[in-house]
Input
Amino acid sequence: MAGGFALATTLLTPRPGRAAPPTAAHAQRIKTLLARMTLDEKIGQMHQPAGGRQKALNSKIDAAALDLVRQGGVGSYLHVAGAQFLRDLQKVAVEESRLKIPLLFAIDVIHGFRTLYPVPLAMAATFDPEAYRACARMAAVETSVSGLHWTFAPMVDVARDPRWGRVVEGAGEDPYLGSAMAVAQTEGFQTKDLAGRDTVLACVKHFGAYGAVAGGRDYDSADLSERTLNEVVMPAFHAGKTAGAGSFMTAFNDIGGVPTTANAALVRGQLRDKWGFDGIVVSDWNAIAELIAHGVAETPAQAAALALKAGVDMDMAGGVYAAHLKSAVAEDPSLLPLIDQAVGHILLTKARLGLFDDPYRFGDVAREKTVMVSAPHRAIARDAARKAVVLLKNDGALLPLAKTAKVAVVGALADDARSAIGSWKARGEETDAVTLLAALKTRLSGVTYVPGAAPRSDDLSGVAAAVEAAKAADVTLLVVGEDFDHSAESRSRADLSLPGGQKALADAVLATGKPVVLVVMGGRPLAIPDLLAKAPASLMTWLLGVESGPALADILLGEASPAGRLPMGLPRDAGGLPETYAHYPTGRPANPDLAQDTARYHDLDIGPVYPFGHGLSYASFAYSDLTLDKATIGPNDTVSVTVAVTNTGKVAADEVVQLYMRDPLAAVARPVKELRGFRRLALKPGETRRVTFKLAARQCAFWEAGRWRIQKGKIELMVGASSDDIRARAAFAISVDGWSDTPAAALLTPVTVA
Ligand code: GLC
Output
């Protein structure tokens, strides 16, 4: 068929920036199949029904579902799992359907499949892409042995408003950190050979600007400038694509009134034509049908046509392609070649996964019984959990605790195993989780526990006992925050203070005047400025997965020094949101002097309580000898930025060295600082290492008229331990203007340590 032939040729023609072109064998297979497929069978490939629900996987695979598979009416299932179950289901497709095209099986592996590691925002707080890669690799093993081919991760939505509950699923407020974590996850899930052993297809989501929804209200509109869209939102998507991610997912939201699921300029124009992406674009859940609610389609057939024209290959859980695309084609036969393209992307992905060569290569009933929450997998989760903990404050070196200390543990979250494993738990089991309380009981003799209050109750009857326990103890661990279900999808909150009776509990315990360590748990930054001011020591400990307790105990007892860094600032008040460290200077930069008329609130101090990149250590570090190998570089050149870092403390510890840049004078205002490199490194007491960042002029580019402009002039550099703890400064010059084709924050800076 003409469409098929044209497609096959297209697939073989390498386009700029695309992943490795498909092998000739793939293209031949696709051409042959497309020529044989009926329109119904083609539309079947574009249909991804739910095979179950998150809490009841496989539950919808009934006789009718199997018949639809036999008819070639399904391309993929999500919310399914199990090596034997999926082998049997695959068998129906590859042995009982006419064309024997294998199915794709998908699930949300967001921070682990069965061995849950810290939630993504906590993984970002590690500032350790290698730790993230190791976790994703481990998750891919558990996912693929369970017969699954595809995870809907990494979620790369940059977010600067923690009222949005889905901040828990991303890497926080910075596009560069987001790019680094997108690459680490994509490569961890897929390795370099998607058809290799124990891989799963990654899915970069949600394309795009879902993290910018108005007011942090989930599913709301995102209305942002073209500059912000390209400089802040797009980099991590580009980085994920360049890392070879095999699929993308469109988002629920509109951007300035154009729903992303119908946004041809964004999907077909930018992702496909400009970036050369040839994998699968899947809609989000029912998002094609929702084009009617958006008011851009009157009927499901019109919604189907819009999504197809936009470049959406597969309809997740909406059933709109399956039920209405055929009538849309009858109305408009020009859709037929677009269907061939969509099916071509789906078939190419199945070929890349090796499913045509061996449809049963995923799934291993024997290994499925041994790899889950194995000791090596737990060790990977525990290492990541330790690295994710952020020490916010440690006045008087209250931490680490002495092993002989009499410790009162107060707060229901200290023993909440369900919350420890977080939201989006895939096949995770709360019984796998070791809570903080359970871990401390094995490590300390004098532990008392009083729940005191809980995140979902206003009952304060336990506060008195908690106060007594605090008075009787040497030190109290005050464990408060949000539980697993306060954040994630459809969990926007307008009030970011402590939920339930926890604030009263915290105030009462702090009022004892006894030493208190504030342990904050949850999936989002909270606005708790007075608690952070009152408690002499505090930690942001997120939701750390199955090894939450042991990892936290390691930090609290000094087995490991904390080095996590905030991927999002901790706000003073929800009323001050959204906010970011990488803000524009404005014509009236915020001034502490309220007599000055400047860019700030009169009833709120300037900026977050603790900013992006903040995190303390049990050691201390000195930065020295910041040097550049060149004073001036051309637009296609790099400058090597070297700094010496010394552990001036008494204990071995990690430090996260951060490199920020600023363009102080350009054709457009540039942020006061932007992260352009970081490196977490271990240093023994007294040890000095030299860290070198190889920064390219392209990484200083800004969006201008559809391209990336590198402007002649000075670039300021700042190196330090946080976005507001700059230890050394330098500058270089770009000699002449130039142009780049890549989002600046998508380019990761090579870092070497000597
Ligand atoms: C959800 C989420 C998306 C997820 C999908 C499948 O609504 O928006 O992130 O991957 O549906 O569970």
About this structure: The mean pLDDT is 96. The pocket of alpha-D-glucopyranose is lined by residues 78, 108, 152, 205, 284-285, 489 (CB under 6 Å).
